[in-house]
């Protein structure tokens, strides 16, 4: 009872302090809000919306069940999750945060995952997408497309390492469904696809409408969190809270022979990955290798902004948030370690010399530049896509309300 009262007082005091800060720093708060809004409607909304809609339709048509049966012999031994986890993993890497959490929650709601399986799966299927790593971070902040190769490899290898480690989570229940789908069976996969489609039984128009409304509702929630944490991060900086917390990081950075000036970008990145990555790129006292390691941790930890989005999504199910949070810390440590270990073979020896660019594989040259170009094209077309999608969403809601009215 006492702890509950202390928590109530702390939360009330925090919100009151935040409200007073908004009044004390109105211009800074407005600028931070606009920055978060621009990130959402230019990049996040148009990049995630197609993936969310297609994912909902794939689930409704039974394609995810089909994929799940086929991938069962691969996903179950490695990660102790059903085969549908392969679909969530792929979509999470392609579309970025928090697609993995949304799809995991969706599959949990329909009974395709147990709670332990869902908690394992969500821990390694939330990641940054290649567009953000190459376009925003490596090119936009560092002006170095080759750095994106290191960041991307470290990021995704770190996710795999987390998945392999989290397979031991809930080890006592490892035999719950371990005997199913031991062999690759295309006929069984097709049967599962058909059963799922018949069970859903929604017309295509209804299924598409539900997919659009559900996806946009989730993205509106995500936009709110992005704007909120953009403002919170700025206010914490002006209230000197960031500098105070950075003092605690100075000792850790000094022990690793990192410059102390990286502490404020690191703390900022714990709250919001975009600002943290941008500030890290501006620390000229650090080597590029040190900047890459800090940025890798920030991208993997994903920031409290993304974690709040995930927590909101998981709250709709019985999936616990704590394993996801612990996995983000592990992912950050793994990604930073991989950035350190792979620096010599992948950057210094392969991408560090302009004279040797002819020896660099196509993926390291052309694809990184293509992804970066796609990111900036998306930023230009993003607002139009967002406005159009919101107009469609309003039209669908109006139509449904009109049908439901007497």
UniProtKB/TrEMBL annotation:
Membrane-crossing residue ranges in chain numbering? 48-71, 121-143, 149-170, 207-229, 261-280, 292-313, 325-343, 375-398
List each copy of the Nucleoside transporter/FeoB GTPase Gate domain by range.
42-140, 219-315
Mind telling me which InterPro entries this protein's record contains? Gate_dom, Spore_IM_YlbJ
What keywords are annotated for this sequence in UniProt? Membrane, Signal, Transmembrane, Transmembrane helix
Task: List the signal peptide residues.
Answer: 1-26
Any idea what this protein is called? Sporulation integral membrane protein YlbJ
Q: Which organism is it from?
A: Neobacillus piezotolerans
Q: What is the lineage of its organism?
A: Bacteria, Bacillati, Bacillota, Bacilli, Bacillales
Q: Which gene encodes it?
A: ylbJ
